[in-house]
User: Fold this.
Amino acid sequence: MTTKEVAVWLLERDKFLLLTHVRPDGDTIGSAAALCRALRDLGKEAYLLKNHGITATYAPYAEGLWAAEDYVPATVVSVDTAALSLFIDNAEQYKSRVDLAIDHHGSQEFFANQTCLEAESAACGEVVYDIIRHMTPITAEIALPLYVAISTDCGCFQYGNTTPRTHRIAAELMELVDVRDVNKALFRTKSPVRLKMESRMVEEMTLHDDNRVVVMSIPLALRREMNATEADIEELSSLAALVEGTDCGITLRELREGVIKISLRSTGPRVDASAVCAQLGGGGHRGAAGATVEGTMAEVKAAVLEAVSKVTEA
Amino acid sequence: MTTKEVAVWLLERDKFLLLTHVRPDGDTIGSAAALCRALRDLGKEAYLLKNHGITATYAPYAEGLWAAEDYVPATVVSVDTAALSLFIDNAEQYKSRVDLAIDHHGSQEFFANQTCLEAESAACGEVVYDIIRHMTPITAEIALPLYVAISTDCGCFQYGNTTPRTHRIAAELMELVDVRDVNKALFRTKSPVRLKMESRMVEEMTLHDDNRVVVMSIPLALRREMNATEADIEELSSLAALVEGTDCGITLRELREGVIKISLRSTGPRVDASAVCAQLGGGGHRGAAGATVEGTMAEVKAAVLEAVSKVTEA
Assistant:
């Protein structure tokens, strides 16, 4: 369906339940929140299915939008969700009856009765923006979650998925709402604990394979010493991908004594992250993959470096 | 002068020399390079005065544009330069004969015969974009340095100076040139030395004024120990502005024995960075300002903290 067809389709329906994906990010929450508010502006009943995985970062945007447990929807819409495997636990009952999926992932599995897919959009928020524009005026309350959706999925306009259209939509949204505090909170704030964790990771990083591979570690001892929360160590694996001259960033995080989570980021054509992690019982994409293995930091580091060299030799 | 008046003025003249500011950033180099290329497209002679402080980060954008030492200009234009004190050493002879200053700093000192100032622009690149649009088509060769100018001065659309217009211009430029490699190089790559400099700055940072003010230092000794180049330490002052809970980030960089460059970033309404730096003989914007003063690190730190407390008391 085109965004215009979706708008017509939505206008004909009511009693909406909007589904977000597991480990919710800014795009799924922001897109669902914006659509929910737009539907309410049109006089319709609309809620988000409670997503218990939501973090403090995105919770404010869904405030007042969660459905009561006994809510009985007539129309079920999933947002930013490529596959049924990404459904949250409490959405189990809706898996076979999603009326519409709105998405931007090329890997969309077409599990819904209707699908609106725009794979060239940087964020699902761009698709939702178009849909809402065909239905009702965009208010400040709609613009804010849309901006969160779009800006988070393109790394605040830094990632390669950013298009001229992404910027034009951002411009429109900024006419309606002040995003300075959002930008500061989402992209330019780090807790002192997180900054110090990063510092230690950098000081202890090691370079391998003619300085093309960098390894960073987060031992349990460091986490305990810093008294770090989950939020303090979220997304820490992106740090290794920054190191100039390298095309393969490996982060080893000790989950518990003797169990290490490997996160691998490849920023060039040389290393296929997914192929490396497949050798260690994990998986993922070409650019980002992971695996969880048993062993000491030293053992796992040796194993992952060997896996990298095997893949790049081939 | 308005940008349209500047366009008419430029079209009437020839033999241009474009001046960039000391410790050149992306905005001054990108703006000058774009304007230089546009003037050349119009069949005019145009060069940038050699800026010996240019780093490897921005050097590619000025390649082929530097004036020969014996070049005799008829028209001298400064770009992104608020004051004569920011002139490079080899521009001494032009201080009293700048024909036009193109700038976006509220602290512009009107040292030129003519001034085109748009203080609400996020970057001087936005002003130059408007000027060029009144003169000649924007080519890919012009779009690239303009994108560098604009994106670097607004932290890739993250800073509070970003406006809807900033995004709209970015959209126009992205229609003309692929900026993905530029974004990766400018915003998602750090040298190992730079990462280690940042680590040390974080480990030695101090908090003041109920943890609302953070001070980071770059002593000469650290720079020497790390063997850091100019590129390794440019824009390091944005680090202090990241610290959660603070609204004023101060970076003290020892330029040479007994001379400290203060960079101040204010992320809230409480501290006017420009007012703080004005007390120390410097200037800038409300959100970002600087000053260069004599003294030891300890003396300058005390002086800037006192200046902050004076401004916030008032």
